[in-house]
Write a structure and sequence with these properties.
Elements lengths: L2 H21 L9 H18 L13 H32 L10 E2 L5 H25 L1 H11 L15 H15 L1 E2 L6 H16 L16 H7 L19 H5 L26 H5 L10
Parallel strand pairs: 1-2
């Protein structure tokens, strides 16, 4: 067995074991993605139930269970499978003399922990904002991103309804973002990821939050609802691309928020052609794109 095969197998087995240990609470709480995701999801869902923005929307809204399954599929099942391929890619680069330090632009290892986390959060969010713009602007990528925009009633779980191919697009760019910061410790990243998950859940939730003056920095559900609007401004391929931060949209003039009733239709022209079942959505996008 060569080292590439053994690396892939070891990665897969290690991730499965870690996932099982997470379920059994045998890993530290601050790096336990499984129960962390469940706790965040239940908390935001509770806020939806107690303080609904769209009061006529059911607690178990349309496609609630489908979106719930997507959360666990994208975060765990698919992540376990795909991680081995990224390990192989890392091994290949190592073999040809390219290491993490080869891409270091800013060594933040000497900075206080809080500033390391803040820089990581900002850079990672910008990379995701830029990738999100490409998902809308490039027809090939839009084919897959349509799955996320096929949501017809917004709720917290819609945050993680996305086509598995988006992982293929996002992760390499996010990895490059991490590599730019020399000396960054991976363990610290969990704090940033949990914060991003919480903000992302809130942005998709049936809750009216604007953050007051901070709306120009932090993304919010009122702004993000218009990202999912069925009707977009003329000559626009999308608006409000912010993931955790709205800052980038205001800087690059992609912000749009004409009102805040929360009653707009969401989706996109042609969304009725998107299959309703997970298995058909799984293979969606590999055929000729339907009209945007």
């Amino acid at each position: 067995m060569d080292k590439y095969t053994s690396t892939f197998i070891d990665s897969f087995i290690g991730n499965v074991q870690w996932f099982w240990k997470s379920i059994l609470l045998e890993v530290p709480w601050y790096i336990n993605y499984f129960w962390g995701l469940i706790l965040i999801s239940l908390s935001v869902w509770g806020l939806e139930i107690l303080f609904p923005w769209r009061k006529k929307q059911s607690i178990f809204r349309k496609d609630f269970w489908l979106d719930g399954f997507y959360m666990f599929f994208n975060f765990f099942i698919f992540a376990i499978t795909i991680d081995g391929f990224y390990k192989l890619l890392g091994l290949f680069f190592s073999d040809i003399g390219i290491s993490v330090k080869s891409f270091t632009v800013l060594d933040i290892s000497t900075l206080p922990i809080w500033s390391q986390l803040l820089l990581f959060f900002i850079i990672l969010d910008f990379v995701q904002w830029f990738t999100h713009v490409l998902l809308h602007k490039l027809p090939f990528l839009w084919r897959f991103h349509k799955i996320h925009h096929s949501v017809k009633e917004m709720g917290f779980a819609a945050h993680l309804r996305y086509h598995w191919m988006e992982n293929i697009f996002y992760k390499p760019l996010k990895t490059v973002g991490v590599m730019l910061l020399g000396g960054f410790e991976p363990e610290q990243a969990y704090i940033v990821h949990f914060a991003a998950i919480t903000i992302g859940h809130l942005n998709h939730a049936n809750i009216k939050i604007t953050w007051g003056p901070l709306k120009y920095i932090i993304n919010n559900p009122v702004m993000h609802l218009y990202h999912h609007s069925y009707i977009l401004p003329k000559k626009s391929f999308g608006v409000n691309f912010g993931i955790s931060l709205s800052l980038w949209d205001y800087i690059f003039k992609t912000n749009y928020l004409p009102e805040d009733s929360g009653t707009i239709e969401i989706g996109f022209p042609g969304d009725e052609k998107v299959p309703k079942s997970f298995f058909k959505q799984f293979i969606y996008g590999f055929r000729k794109s339907i009209s945007k």
